[in-house]
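Handover notes (outgoing to incoming on-call)

Open items:
1. Response regulator transcription factor: sequence verified, structure written out, both below. Nothing else pending on this one.
2. Nothing else urgent.
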Amino acid sequence: MPANLERRIGIVDDDDALRDALSWLFSTRNHSVSTFASAEELLRDYRPEDFGCLVLDVRMPGMGGIELFEQLKSYSYCPPVIFLTGHGDVPMAVAALKEGATDFIEKPFSDNAMVDLVERCLADDLTRRGEWQTRTSVSQRLETLTPREREVMKLILTGRLNKQIADDLGISMKTVEVHRARILEKMAVKTAMELAALLREAGIEG
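Response regulator transcription factor structure tokens:
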């Protein structure tokens, strides 16, 4: 089975030996890995779509793992994040969980426990990434609608008929029909029910 080259595991730790050990560990399980000696090194060419999971050391010279995580959350998508912690850093890691991190693991750790945790994150990333891509795609389609088409769409989603929409907006029924057709075409759906379902799937309010 080829390595997963699309969604790499990113390891950010200033300890050369630990980076090498983790890279070897994940590679033996057929995962693609990239390692970084600092948060700044990761951010230099960072693209969230490149990673299926990020393993961050809590304490590093310069920008620490917690601060790095805050930066990663500012992107349109943040892959699952695991923190590597020493015993004294556990409260910080627990606080990061409340802010959206996936989990943390204390050093020294079991290789099997680490791989199991990362593979759960990769599975979670597939679901979350799919939802993000759907939401992004639908949002991009919505951006193509004119202000009037948005008005008409909102009324369509409430179940209003073409004649009712025409009366509501003070326009002809023929104009409503044209707007409806353009809305469905731009949103790549065939019916108002499909449009409503698409917005629900994307987590976007009508």
